[in-house]
Amino acid sequence: MLLKTVFVRLLTTAITLFGVAIVVFVLVRVAPGNPIAMMLPPGATEKDIAALNAVYGFDKSLAEQFIIWLGGVLHGDFGTSITLRQPVAELVLGRLPATLELSSIALLLAVALGGCVAVIGARKRGTGTEVGLDLTSGAVLSVPDFLWGLIFVLVFGVLWPVLSISGRVDPRIDIDFTTNFYIFEGLLRGRLDVVGSTLSHMLMPAMSLALPLAAMIAQLLKQNLKEALTQDYTTLARVRGFSETAVILREALRNAALPTLALVGVQFTFLIGGTVIVERLFAFEGLGNMAIDAVINRDLPLIQGIVLLFAALFTVINLLVDLSYTFLNPRLRHG
Amino acid sequence: MTMTTAHAHTLDIINLNIALPRGQRLLRNVSLQLEPGEVRALVGESGAGKSMIGKAVLGILPHRIKRTEGEILLEGAHLNAMTPATRRSTVAKMSALIPQDPLTALNPVRKIGPQITDPLTRIHGWSHQRALARARELLDRVHIRAPDRVMHSYPHELSGGMRQRILIAAAFAPSPRLIVADEPTTALDVTVQKQILRLIRELQRETGTAVLFVTHDMGVVAKISQKVTVLFAGRVIEDAATRTVFENPAHPYTQALIAATPTPNVSAEPFQPVPAALITELHRETLAADALYAQRGRR
Ligand SMILES: Nc1ncnc2c1ncn2[C@@H]1O[C@H](COP(=O)(O)OP(=O)(O)OP(=O)(O)O)[C@@H](O)[C@H]1O
Ligand SMILES: [Mg+2]
């Protein structure tokens, strides 16, 4: 049952990614701006441009180019970045850990923050505290992630500079890790200096990404908690002597988490999308920051590689959300 | 304050008034007692306030509905004099609820076992082994064939009748002095209703637990109870021994309720609804009582 679900999902994932590959391939080529012309000095002739075009294979037809590219992709070769002159796969996978760590930490922050606010709101339902929390989360929600980023830069970078506002880690720290997962590998190796520096650099970008999602979780989860708290099984728990807080945490939370989880899955992909601008804002060396450079320089192979990786990431996340949904809901697990 | 005397009633409700925020009364000067081991039926039409009495005792009145006057005593202890936390634990230790709808009264995402044993370990302070043994014992007593398998199941894997038997087992597990059963059979198939009723009666006799049994079925009243309280619009219309009520009902409304009950062996008698004139008279009495109550409040 579960295996079949996973298999079907992997198949649809492959088809989706193929579709994304075609769309991106065509789009970046019909979009204005010639990457080759940008690489040559101002006085270059048409002949010069055509020659360099041929070097990168851009003189062939669109279909031919796609087949050549796809053939490479199937062998793990995503082409070479025009501007950085390195294999796309290497570049992209080298940056992926930074973005994964950033978005995971942001997700954790959002769930923790939003979850706490939702539980408190449900506990204090019908009081001024609930209204206050509702108003606050409404306000937080109406400010997008990159604006939070600007606010943080302004407050903690300029007015009250207590946190580092650029980079991923203190450049003075010597890091000889095998992967680029600084937090994960740092924890495994016991290099707490690396973990600490990475986390302190990450705090503001992660908060910028987390706040809108936290507010959304706070609102939806609280609504679902309140709904669960009118159900008979919560009334029975109260009769059995459990305090209101215990009823919320032990009886209502898991029921309320199910519908909330579906939203978190969708919103998490938006959060990852948000890393593009937020990473730029904090000069954080992740995939999103690289994507902006790639677009500015019309680095077609690199853009393709990044977009494809993002698309793969999104489908994997959706799969994980569906699986955890099945896992949390006993009615789906057996039925 | 929580002192109990040997001759205290299990439940003593004295002149209880429950009202909506604007003062609209849902229970009007209700008094009733339950002796140890006694089953008292609470009857009346829909909306008469039967469930409200149970909720007031168990401390689960709906939001905004408040006690405005009167006392509730459990084994001689004044519930209204306690702090909310003390009251909650006192009520939990002395009483239990068998709910109306077994399909919604079990948490759908939790296994059956912990739903029975959690209150025993966390509220009554039993060891895990003791709670588990007690759960098995009671599941067995309510004729659940494989207690251990059932305790590892989720509610949706079990039938409605089975879930109600589980809820009955859970209610009796901590040996409460009082059980409130709020129409525990109405949500079930007719065939299952009889089994459930018999089970509650048997367990009640074996344990000597007092039961406040909410129903609108006079047939059920005759089968299960020793005492009856008849309610109309939140007012006690009649309070007597069940036998007396059936043989010689004092109030015309009670007579009408009995007459309106289809009895299989007296099938010759046609079904008789409660006469309209009687209902009108009862409403007039209710309004008069409210006027008097308001006047007394103003003084
Ligand atoms: N949450 C609530 N808010 C306002 N009024 C309520 C609420 N719950 C019940 N009532 C009112 O209180 C009165 C008594 O309700 P109660 O549930 O005790 O009736 P009942 O005798 O149990 O009826 P039934 O046989 O339908 O269960 C009814 O008039 C009902 O409309
Ligand atoms: Mg009722």
Automatic annotation (TrEMBL), chain A:
<keyword id="KW-0813">Transport</keyword>
<comment type="similarity">
    <text>Belongs to the binding-protein-dependent transport system permease family.</text>
</comment>
<keyword id="KW-1133">Transmembrane helix</keyword>
<dbReference type="InterPro" id="IPR035906">
    <property type="entry name" value="MetI-like_sf"/>
</dbReference>
<feature type="transmembrane region" description="Helical">
    <location>
        <begin position="7"/>
        <end position="31"/>
    </location>
</feature>
<dbReference type="InterPro" id="IPR045621">
    <property type="entry name" value="BPD_transp_1_N"/>
</dbReference>
<feature type="transmembrane region" description="Helical">
    <location>
        <begin position="143"/>
        <end position="163"/>
    </location>
</feature>
<keyword id="KW-0812">Transmembrane</keyword>
<dbReference type="GO" id="GO:0005886">
    <property type="term" value="C:plasma membrane"/>
</dbReference>
<keyword id="KW-0472">Membrane</keyword>
<dbReference type="Pfam" id="PF00528">
    <property type="entry name" value="BPD_transp_1"/>
</dbReference>
<feature type="domain" description="ABC transmembrane type-1">
    <location>
        <begin position="96"/>
        <end position="321"/>
    </location>
</feature>
<dbReference type="Pfam" id="PF19300">
    <property type="entry name" value="BPD_transp_1_N"/>
</dbReference>
<dbReference type="InterPro" id="IPR000515">
    <property type="entry name" value="MetI-like"/>
</dbReference>
<keyword id="KW-1003">Cell membrane</keyword>
<dbReference type="GO" id="GO:0071916">
    <property type="term" value="F:dipeptide transmembrane transporter activity"/>
</dbReference>
<feature type="transmembrane region" description="Helical">
    <location>
        <begin position="260"/>
        <end position="282"/>
    </location>
</feature>
<feature type="transmembrane region" description="Helical">
    <location>
        <begin position="102"/>
        <end position="122"/>
    </location>
</feature>
<feature type="transmembrane region" description="Helical">
    <location>
        <begin position="302"/>
        <end position="328"/>
    </location>
</feature>
<protein>
    <submittedName>
        <fullName>Binding-protein-dependent transport system inner membrane protein</fullName>
    </submittedName>
</protein>
<feature type="transmembrane region" description="Helical">
    <location>
        <begin position="202"/>
        <end position="221"/>
    </location>
</feature>
From TrEMBL, chain B:
<keyword id="KW-0472">Membrane</keyword>
<keyword id="KW-1003">Cell membrane</keyword>
<keyword id="KW-0997">Cell inner membrane</keyword>
<keyword id="KW-0547">Nucleotide-binding</keyword>
<dbReference type="GO" id="GO:0015833">
    <property type="term" value="P:peptide transport"/>
</dbReference>
<feature type="domain" description="ABC transporter">
    <location>
        <begin position="11"/>
        <end position="258"/>
    </location>
</feature>
<dbReference type="InterPro" id="IPR013563">
    <property type="entry name" value="Oligopep_ABC_C"/>
</dbReference>
<protein>
    <submittedName>
        <fullName>ABC transporter</fullName>
    </submittedName>
</protein>
<dbReference type="InterPro" id="IPR003593">
    <property type="entry name" value="AAA+_ATPase"/>
</dbReference>
<dbReference type="Pfam" id="PF00005">
    <property type="entry name" value="ABC_tran"/>
</dbReference>
<dbReference type="GO" id="GO:0005524">
    <property type="term" value="F:ATP binding"/>
</dbReference>
<comment type="similarity">
    <text>Belongs to the ABC transporter superfamily.</text>
</comment>
<keyword id="KW-1278">Translocase</keyword>
<dbReference type="InterPro" id="IPR050388">
    <property type="entry name" value="ABC_Ni/Peptide_Import"/>
</dbReference>
<dbReference type="InterPro" id="IPR017871">
    <property type="entry name" value="ABC_transporter-like_CS"/>
</dbReference>
<dbReference type="Pfam" id="PF08352">
    <property type="entry name" value="oligo_HPY"/>
</dbReference>
<keyword id="KW-0067">ATP-binding</keyword>
<dbReference type="GO" id="GO:0005886">
    <property type="term" value="C:plasma membrane"/>
</dbReference>
<keyword id="KW-0813">Transport</keyword>
<dbReference type="InterPro" id="IPR003439">
    <property type="entry name" value="ABC_transporter-like_ATP-bd"/>
</dbReference>
<dbReference type="GO" id="GO:0016887">
    <property type="term" value="F:ATP hydrolysis activity"/>
</dbReference>
<dbReference type="InterPro" id="IPR027417">
    <property type="entry name" value="P-loop_NTPase"/>
</dbReference>
